[in-house]
Design goal:
Blueprint lengths: L5 H12 L6 H12 L7 H10 L4 H16 L2 H24 L2 H25 L14 H30 L8 H4 E2 L5 H9 L3 H8 L2 E2 L17 E7 L2 E7 L12
Length: about 260
């Protein structure tokens, strides 16, 4: 069951702002939850108006009961009511979200991969990190590829959060985006993370040998962070010395063992 927190709903709004869609019924339920918030209702005023208007005695009694409840309700009581509503709404909202969640992810995946193909093509002509001063005598094709690479590298930084949010809404939990958007097969794990967290990540990743490509949700595999560096003491000719050892220094085949 999805956790319907404010953060989750902010993610849904961000997905919609980027062109994703959720059902009319989902939005109706969210509106009803807001419109029917008991904290926005002045039960005492409604009770008085019901009496004055000669309303049905049953309705008058209902408002009177609610007015009494509001005067005695504690913050714990209010939280109990809100939490009860949240529990009742959760499976209904889950069902509505699920109707478009994968479709939204696939839409953003196509957008991302189209940009990735264009960025890789531009990179093969000239890396986006090339000093613009080196382009003074470059051909029109090279200058165009450089400018496109600059633009696409910037766009990637906006596409990744949306793509990751869409994956999460669709039920795929990601600890980081790497496993979602990169093929790093055969590459040193620490070098991948250094490229990902360093400057000019997209160019650095291509130069490392990674492929920028968002996978289908059923193909996603989490990409863990590298293990911490270790120190070992090695006996030398004149005593012991300490050396740094990277536990990730092994062949790719060892990952499967």
């Amino acid at each position: 069951m999805l956790d319907h927190t404010l953060i989750r709903e902010e993610s849904i709004r961000a997905i919609e702002a980027a062109g994703g869609e959720f059902t009319d019924e989902y939005h109706r339920l969210i509106r009803r939850r807001t419109e029917c918030d008991p904290s926005t209702i002045n039960a005492a005023q409604q009770y008085a108006e019901a009496v004055i208007s000669d309303a049905d005695p049953t309705q008058v009694a209902m408002w009177g009961t609610l007015a009494l409840a509001q005067t005695t309700a504690s913050s714990v009581d209010e939280a109990t009511v809100r939490n009860g509503l949240a529990r009742a709404l959760a499976p209904v909202l889950d069902a509505e979200i699920a109707k478009t969640a994968v479709k939204n992810y696939e839409k953003f995946r196509r957008q991302f991969n189209t940009a990735a193909t264009a960025f890789t093509k531009a990179h093969d002509i000239i890396p986006a990190t090339t000093d613009p001063g080196d382009l003074i005598n470059a051909s029109s094709e090279i200058r165009t590829a450089w400018a496109e690479g600059q633009s696409l590298a910037h766009n990637f930084d906006g596409l990744v959060p949306t793509l990751t949010a869409a994956a999460t809404i669709a039920g795929t939990q990601t600890s980081n985006p790497i496993g979602l958007i990169l093929n790093t097969e055969g590459l040193h794990r620490r070098r991948v993370w250094e490229a990902w967290t360093g400057p000019n990540r997209w160019t650095a990743l291509l130069q490392l040998g990674a492929t920028i490509h968002a996978v289908a949700l059923e193909e996603y595999e989490d990409y863990r962070e590298p293990a911490p560096m270790q120190q070992r003491h090695i006996r030398g000719d004149v005593g012991w010395r300490t050396v740094d050892v990277d536990p990730e220094d092994h062949t790719p085949d060892e990952d499967d063992e």
